[in-house]
């Protein structure tokens, strides 16, 4: 059992319990990919698996799970709402490297500077954030350009301890995901054309930023090559732009 498998197992079970889930199509060749890295007795297999679902209010629920031995474990789990809902994104980046664990957990806002939006989607979860701060203190340096894409309830921490991940981080992940699905339950479709245009632009802003700055790009390129990596990023992980282009053509 890898470090982040319990996170993924919990999420999938909870999603099945609370949503009308359907599979989300994963392009051929991206469901599973492996490579051998290192030399001699240090050689390890790195396996990347992809999971995808959708539901009536959520356009894409997807996970990329990288398993590369004790010093390389990654789970990137993101939920993108349909474009006629003002829901934030759910984002969990759980990364284990030789130097320790990097943990980022948030409900990433469409409109960070809108007080009404903050009152609707950030205020209700601040108490969850505060409850975990004592165990998961602020992780330090964070790119200035990334700040607009995160909420005041952004849980960002670094730890050396596997035990912290298995207890406090897993508990925080569960609480954030439960709270997010409560928002999904309550969400009403947006019908105003200006608001819909703003939502689409906000989603595209976020996806373009994430696709361009994806911190896993270097890692995936090293393991699987440039062509596979770019197609994985644009054709599955952050595929909205492509889906909209296809939709406009149809």
Automatic annotation (TrEMBL):
Q: What is its EC number?
A: 1.3.7.3
Task: Respond yes or no to whether keyword DNA-binding is given for this record.
Answer: no
The family database entries (NCBIfam families) matched by this protein are listed as: PRK13250.1
The biological processes this protein is annotated with in GO are: phytochromobilin biosynthetic process
Name by which UniProt lists this protein: Phycoerythrobilin:ferredoxin oxidoreductase
The answer, when asked if Oxidoreductase is one of the entry's keywords, is yes
What family does this chain come from, according to its entry? Belongs to the HY2 family.
Tell me which HAMAP family the record gives: PebB
Q: Which UniProt keywords apply?
A: Oxidoreductase
Q: Which Pfam families match?
A: Fe_bilin_red
Molecular functions per Gene Ontology: cobalt ion binding; phycoerythrobilin:ferredoxin oxidoreductase activity
Known Gene3D superfamilies for this protein? 3.40.1500.20
- Catalytic activity, as annotated: (3Z)-phycoerythrobilin + oxidized 2[4Fe-4S]-[ferredoxin] = 15,16-dihydrobiliverdin + reduced 2[4Fe-4S]-[ferredoxin] + 2 H(+)
Q: What does this protein do?
A: Catalyzes the two-electron reduction of the C2 and C3(1) diene system of 15,16-dihydrobiliverdin.
């Amino acid at each position: 059992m890898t470090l982040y498998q319990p996170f993924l197992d919990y999420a999938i079970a909870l999603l099945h319990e609370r949503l009308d889930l359907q599979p989300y199509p994963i392009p051929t060749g991206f469901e599973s990919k492996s490579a051998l890295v290192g030399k001699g007795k240090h050689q390890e297999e790195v396996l990347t698996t992809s999971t995808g679902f959708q539901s009536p209010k959520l356009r894409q629920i997807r996970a990329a799970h990288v398993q590369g031995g004790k010093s390389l474990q990654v789970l990137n789990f993101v939920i993108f709402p349909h474009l006629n809902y003002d829901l934030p994104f759910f984002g969990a980046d759980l990364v284990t490297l030789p130097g320790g664990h990097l943990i980022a957990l948030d409900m990433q806002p469409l409109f960070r500077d809108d007080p009404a939006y903050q009152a609707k989607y950030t205020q209700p979860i601040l108490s969850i954030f505060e409850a975990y701060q004592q165990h998961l203190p602020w992780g330090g340096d964070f790119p200035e350009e990334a700040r607009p894409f995160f909420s005041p309830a952004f849980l960002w921490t670094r730890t050396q301890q596997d035990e912290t991940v298995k207890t406090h981080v897993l508990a925080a992940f569960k609480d954030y995901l439960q709270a997010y699905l409560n928002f999904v339950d309550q969400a009403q479709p947006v019908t105003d054309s200006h608001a819909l245009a703003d939502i689409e632009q906000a989603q595209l802003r976020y996806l373009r930023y994430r696709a361009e700055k994806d911190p896993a790009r270097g890692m995936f390129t090293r393991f699987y090559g440039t062509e596979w990596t770019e197609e994985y990023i644009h054709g599955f992980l952050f595929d909205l732009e492509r889906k909209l282009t296809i939709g406009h053509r149809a």
